[in-house]
Amino acid sequence: MKQIIYTEWLKVKNYRTFWAMLLLALIIIPAGNFMVADKFTENLQQLSKLVGNPFSFPDVWLTMASINSYISALFGLLLIILVTNEYTYRTNRQNIIDGWERKHFVYAKLFWLVLLALLTLVVATISAILVGTIYGNKPVSFEGYEYMLYYFLQLVVMLTIALLIGVLVKRAGLAIVLFVAYNMMLDQLLTFLLKRYVGTVGGLLPLQSGDELLPFPLVGKMVATGDHYDTYVYILAMLCYIILGIFLVFRKILKSDL
Predict the structure, then answer these.
(1) Nearby residues of 128 by Cβ (< 8 Å), 6 or more positions away
(2) Per-residue confidence band for 223, with pLDDT thresholds at 50, 70 and 90
(3) Is the dihedral of CA 221, 224, 229, 234 positive or negative?
(4) Three-state secondary-structure class, residue 18
(5) What is the pLDDT of residues 24-40, one digit of tens each?
(6) What's the burial of 17, exposed, middle or buried (CB within 10 Å: 0-12/13-18/19+)?
(7) For the whole model, what pTM was predicted?
C-alpha cells in the first residue's frame, strides 16, 4: 500500500490543477459556513426568540453539516479528474506494465476517496467550531456531532458515485457533465417524483438519504416535515450504496480493458 500511495503522490506532486482545485474546495467550506452565518445573524434577532440560534452549540453541527452537503460537489469533480487522467494519459496501463495488479488501480483511487472525505470532515469540523464560537452564545460542545458523521457518510456516497462515473465514462468532460447533472438535478427530480407518487421510499436515493438526515435547523423547527424512516434506515441505505458502487468499480476494472 505504501508503494501505491507513493506512486499516487508522484502523479499529483507537480499537478497544479489538482492543488488549485483542492485548495478551492477546502476554502469553499469555511467560506460558505461563515457567509451563511453572517447573513443569518444580521436578521436573527427576532427569529432567534422563536427557534433559537442555529449557529450555537449543539445546533451548529447540524447547521454546518446541512450547508456543507450543498457545497461539496467540487470534491467529486476532483476525484473524477484524477480517475479520468489515468485513461487520458495511459498511466493506468503503465502501472500494470510496471507490475501492478488491476485491483491496485482501484485501491489507489479508493485511497483518494477516503483521503478527500477525511480531509473534508476535518475542515468542516474546524469550521463549525469557529462558527459556533464566533456566532453562537454557548460553549463548545460535541453533542450533536453525529450530524457531521452523517455528512461524512453522504460525502463518501457522492465520491463513490464520482468514482464509478469516472471509471465507466473514462473521459473527463462527459464524466463531469453526468456527475453534475445527477448531483444537481437528477437525484432531486427522482426524489420528488418518488415521494409524490410512491411515498417515503423516495428519500432513500443515494444523495437524498443524507439530506433526509441533515435538514436545516430553522426549516425543521418552522416547517412540518413529511414521514421519515428511522435514522438507521438512511445510514444503512448509504452504506449499501457505497458497497454497491465499490463493487461495480472493481467489476469494471477487473473485467474490461484499461
Answers:
(1) 33, 60, 61, 64, 65, 148
(2) very low
(3) negative
(4) helix
(5) 999 999 999 999 888 87
(6) exposed
(7) 0.92
